[in-house]
Design goal:
The strands form 2 sheets. The protein has a 5-stranded mixed β-sheet, with helices on both faces. It is globular, with a radius of gyration of 19 Å. α3 packs parallel to α4. By secondary structure, the protein is of the alpha/beta class. α6 links the parallel β6 and β7. It contains 11 helices and 10 strands.
Length: about 325
């Protein structure tokens, strides 16, 4: 899911990585995290699921002996250059979304898509594209969260909108609340047009699956909202996830994407993250998100409890 070309102003050498303020904060790289070989920075985007994932990564890495800092940003573009340069080492990311981001960077924003619903084939494409920028994927998780789109229950009932093909019932064009880069992404506005024949007249850049996006849909300020398919709050918000009836969305397994040079010296980190990926299921992830979004638990507590329960820490 999940990134608009905001550029990093500068990056430093691998031996002197830039620190990222843990948790929330501005979309910037600040300070110096030090040159400790056991230090690692995990980055992702800024929504509940990504925050849970960075806490899961942090906990298993700390258990493996690393000193870990985390940062969540609004879009992938903010951190991908730093990941490539080695200023940060690990991204908690999404398989097809990261693959297509690398594809567009290598071949232009109109590049023919290379990701697919096949996770193994998509990992191979990610690694192929990642070679030129020093990135590669570890094992993708069983857990998957594809892009999804919601309308209100009221609209669904009144107009018979239960699948994406039904969106044409809303008129010749629709408005959409989504991530800021949605207009240029084949799994967002571009695909709604090419696959489902839906013209998006306006994208409100309120974020992927954010409370602001869901509120805009609920209030009728937009017709449609972009969310994750593991979002545990949809029913309680009176929102309906529309069926992707043409199998449009690609494999979006959660995957650690790492700096290749860093990985050469950090087998124990790869082992810890791969063990997590082998354990975490889509159902597990949805449950963890629900604990944060509906039960108001904090991501670090939810992640720690899950990992202890599974014997991973």
């Amino acid at each position: 899911m999940r990134s608009n070309p905001l550029r990093l102003i500068a990056t430093a050498a691998l031996a002197l990585p830039l620190a990222l303020t843990a948790g929330c904060g501005s979309d910037s790289f600040e300070g110096d995290s030090g040159s400790d070989a056991g230090s690692v920075t995990v980055v992702s985007q800024k929504f509940t699921e990504a925050e849970v994932m960075t806490e899961l990564y942090k906990a298993v890495l700390e258990d493996a002996g690393y000193k870990v800092s985390t940062k969540n940003f609004t879009t992938r573009d903010i951190y991908i250059k730093a990941l490539s340069s080695g200023d940060v080492q690990i991204a908690a990311d999404y398989l097809s979304s990261m693959t297509e981001e690398l594809n567009r960077r290598a071949n232009g924003k109109d590049a023919e898509p290379v990701a697919s619903p096949d996770p193994d084939a998509t990992v191979a494409k990610l690694d192929e594209l990642g070679k030129d920028v020093g990135l590669e994927a570890l094992d993708p998780a069983k857990a998957e969260d594809a892009n999804g789109f919601v309308v209100t229950q009221k609209v669904s009932d009144a107009k018979g909108v239960t699948k994406l093909s039904d969106l044409t019932k809303l008129g010749s064009s629709i408005t959409l609340a989504a991530a800021s880069d949605c207009p240029d992404r084949p799994e967002c506005a571009l695909g709604l047009k090419s696959v489902y024949g839906v013209t998006v007249s306006k994208v409100e850049p309120l974020g992927f699956g954010s409370p602001e996006t869901k509120d805009a849909v609920k209030k009728g300020e937009v017709d449609l909202g972009e969310v994750g398919t593991t979002d545990a709050t949809l029913e309680s918000n009176g929102l309906v996830l529309l069926d992707d009836d043409k199998d449009w969305q690609n494999a979006e397994n959660l995957v650690p994407v790492v700096n290749s040079e860093w990985l050469k010296k950090n087998d124990k980190a790869a082992k810890a993250l791969n063990e997590l990926s082998a354990t975490l299921t889509t159902e597990d992830l949805a449950t963890l998100i629900g604990k944060v979004d509906t039960e108001r638990e904090v991501p670090v507590d939810v992640a720690t409890a899950y990992l202890k329960d599974k014997g991973l820490i």
